[in-house]
Amino acid sequence: QVQLVESGGGLVQAGGSLRLSCAASGRTFSIRTMGWFRQAPGKEREFVAAISWSGDITYAADSVKGRFTISRDNAKNTVYLQMNSLRPEDTAVYYCNADPPVQAFWGQGTQVTVSS
What we know:
Strands 2-10-9-4-5-6 form a six-stranded mixed beta sheet, with no helix packed on it. The termini are far apart. With about 120 residues, it is mostly beta strands. It has no helices and ten strands.
């Protein structure tokens, strides 16, 4: 089993920044590529960014490229999402998971709200 706990969300004004964290526990060796996903009210959950096990390969959705940066610390079993230049349309619940995601790994997520 793998447990993923997201944190770091909050309320921020447009143009502001937040740093999300995802702490993994359990059989974490089973996960190689980790990703961040988000779900806005009334919308499907969507991919945000992902990072390889070694951290040397990252990719992100076009909507966040140049603004969001994903990173990881394998010694701490933690994945981060640095979010800069936030926009109201970034408002969503943010989740981490393996990429591609595993249904059983979804956690509670962390709410990010960006005010205009």
